Amino acid sequence: MSQFALPLDIDSVHEDTGYLVTDCNLQTHQQLEQWGRWPNGTAILIGSHGAGKQAMARKFASQSGGRYVADAHSVADDELFHLWNQSQSDKQPLLLMSDRHVPLWEVRLPDLKSRLAASILIEIGSPDEEMIIGLFQKYFTLRGLSISEDALSYLGKRMERSYQNVQLLAQKMNVLAIERKRSITRGIAKAALAQHEAESEKPDIEEG
Fold it and tell me: How far is the C-alpha of 167 from the C-alpha of 161, rounded, in Å?
């Protein structure tokens, strides 16, 4: 019987377990906890997919009683402006989240532009080695799997550090471990990283 590895969904992993804090996101974590000091009670949280924005927002909301908006760049100007005004009226802090910097939101409403410009900007940077190792441990532990210290050390020192790469490499290691019926060792990690790098180097094929 064939076995299929399920895709790794970073957001669902974070959902019930919070998020990791290391040096790379400590300042972000502290800024979110200091919501009472935000200018106009509003902050904009920028971070790539998998960086923990949803988990951070849920914790912020539970602590502050405030509102948060995922993918704020895709919300209509008038709707976002109304929400900002409503939060001001209710005296509730507002957290806007996106994987895009504000100039790329294509905001056209002048009043909204000025309010966004006056909001505090909080950005989640690239993961450090401690974060990379912690995320791999957390993802595999939640799935009843283990990853060796050798594998973690190998990846932490060699992989390109991004939250997306953590997701992609975890998927590949999971598939390889199932195919080879082995635990996630340095050999599995090395093979997964080689696969990932080879795929990343393939040129895009233009259609036409």
Answer: 11
Helix ranges restricted to H, the chain: 10-15, 26-33, 53-64, 77-90, 110-117, 129-142, 149-158, 163-180, 186-201
Contact 73, 105 (CB under 8 A): yes
Q: Is the pTM of this model over 0.90?
A: no
For 63-117, write each residue's pLDDT tens digit.
999 999 999 999 999 999 999 999 999 999 999 999 999 999 999 999 999 999 9
By the 10 Å C-beta count (0-12 exposed, 13-18 middle, 19+ buried), 187 is classed as middle
State phi, psi for 69 to the nearest 5 degrees.
Answer: -130, 120
End-to-end CA distance of the chain: 40
* Cβ 47 vs Cβ 86: under 8 Å: no
DSSP 161: -
